[in-house]
């Protein structure tokens, strides 16, 4: 039977194109789908930034008043700890977790204070800055800290913001550690990006600086990596 795309004769097997053309078309479809998803993500990000900027100008928004009405408290044993003021409306609009706290009869709502544990003063301040501006000054450490806060308090755009930082700075040396990190905090885009890099360096897997730590603490992730590589090899062999 002739392939509808390249007109070469092939064994049909319920297909209208040969394997090579099918794979090319499938890859093109994946590329287009990825581009569409990226455009959707960028559009959502722009809409989010527009909405957050309208919330983050309390001096121009009379409904918020001129002063903050809530305090975020750091652990007492933090020598740099201090109360960080914030508008209740910011937290309610950007975090389902804070919304549940502040729109119920929980202690946080009654006291006007929320205790934030397991975070440094620097990280909490960066978190608040992001909530008001949709921007943050990131390095690997800060991005990891903020992403963890984004996951804990379900600030999804903060998670996506930090994922984007990690993906844009991805390399082989970081890929294994970021794959484990992505699994811990349910970061699908970062997980996919790091796994792609790992697949391209499987011959160096055991030489990665994070390999021994992952082997000791989460060997099932290494099993998953090897299974993914094996399935990829089987698919490639089948296509040829």
Automatic annotation (TrEMBL):
SMART domains: BTB (SM00225). The lineage of its organism: Eukaryota, Viridiplantae, Streptophyta, Embryophyta, Tracheophyta. It is a peripheral membrane protein. Residues 22-49 form a coiled coil. GO terms for cellular component: endomembrane system. It is found in: Endomembrane system. Keywords: Coiled coil. This is BTB domain-containing protein. Residues 68-140 form the BTB domain. InterPro entries: BTB/POZ_dom, SKP1/BTB/POZ_sf. The keyword rRNA-binding does not apply. Gene3D superfamilies: 1.25.40.420, Potassium Channel Kv1.1, Chain A (3.30.710.10). PROSITE patterns: BTB. It comes from Clitoria ternatea. Its main location: membrane. Pathway: Protein modification; protein ubiquitination.
């Amino acid at each position: 039977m002739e392939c509808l795309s390249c007109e070469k004769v092939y064994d049909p097997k319920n297909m209208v194109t040969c394997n090579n053309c099918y794979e090319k078309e499938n890859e093109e479809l994946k590329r287009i789908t990825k581009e569409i998803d990226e455009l959707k993500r960028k559009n959502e990000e722009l809409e989010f930034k527009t909405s957050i900027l309208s919330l983050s100008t309390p001096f121009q928004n009379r409904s918020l008043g001129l002063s903050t009405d809530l305090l975020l408290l750091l652990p007492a044993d933090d020598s740099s700890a201090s109360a960080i003021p914030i508008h209740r409306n910011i937290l309610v609009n950007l975090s389902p977790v804070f919304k549940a706290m502040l729109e119920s009869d929980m202690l946080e709502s009654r006291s006007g204070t929320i205790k934030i544990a397991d975070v440094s003063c620097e990280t909490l301040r960066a978190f608040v800055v992001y909530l008001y501006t949709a921007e943050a000054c990131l390095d690997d450490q800060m991005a990891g800290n903020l992403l963890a806060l984004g996951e804990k308090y379900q600030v999804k755009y903060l998670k996506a913001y930090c994922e984007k930082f990690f993906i844009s700075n991805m390399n082989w040396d970081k890929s294994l550690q970021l794959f484990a990190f992505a699994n811990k905090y349910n970061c699908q885009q970062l997980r996919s990006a790091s796994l792609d890099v790992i697949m391209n360096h499987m011959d160096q897997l055991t030489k990665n600086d994070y390999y021994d730590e992952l082997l000791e603490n989460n060997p099932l992730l290494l099993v998953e990596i090897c299974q993914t590589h094996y399935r990829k090899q089987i698919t490639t062999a089948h296509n040829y």
